[in-house]
């Protein structure tokens, strides 16, 4: 017996040519379907729900509402356009932001109590 035979096991070439076991075709098909279903309910569906709620919030937006933008600017809605909202952040100071940047609508009087 050679020392190399102890360190390196002999290759089993005859086992490499064997045909793979048959069966399991249905289980191989079910796994991706289950994986896609789980991803839909865990990731896609909640995101679509958040988008729908945000669109509803933007549609209900009216003049005088107190809002916070996604950038953290708090103010009162002065004007509403198709794509932009003018927000009054202090007396006489107005900023135009995209409608999509409106993050949250605050209850009335929140800004006055925060100062």
Automatic annotation (TrEMBL):
InterPro entries: Preprotein_translocase_YajC (IPR003849). Its main location: membrane. The chain crosses the membrane at residues 25-44. GO terms for cellular component: plasma membrane. Keywords: Cell membrane, Membrane, Protein transport, Translocation, Transmembrane, Transmembrane helix, Transport. The keyword Transmembrane applies. It is found in: Cell membrane. GO terms for biological process: protein transport. It is a single-pass membrane protein. Belongs to the YajC family. This is Sec translocon accessory complex subunit YajC. It comes from Pseudoxanthomonas spadix (strain BD-a59). The gene is yajC.
């Amino acid at each position: 017996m050679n020392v190399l035979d102890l360190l390196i096991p002999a290759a089993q070439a005859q086992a490499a040519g064997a045909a793979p076991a048959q069966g399991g075709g249905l289980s191989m098909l079910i796994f991706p379907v289950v994986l896609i279903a789980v991803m839909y309910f865990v990731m896609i569906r909640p995101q679509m729900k958040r988008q729908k709620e945000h669109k509803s919030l933007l549609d209900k937006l009216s003049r005088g509402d107190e809002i916070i933008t996604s950038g953290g600017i708090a103010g009162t809605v002065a004007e509403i356009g198709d794509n932009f909202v003018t927000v009054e952040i202090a007396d006489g100071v107005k900023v135009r932001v995209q409608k999509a940047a409106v993050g949250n609508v605050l209850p009335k009087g929140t800004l006055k109590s925060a100062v």
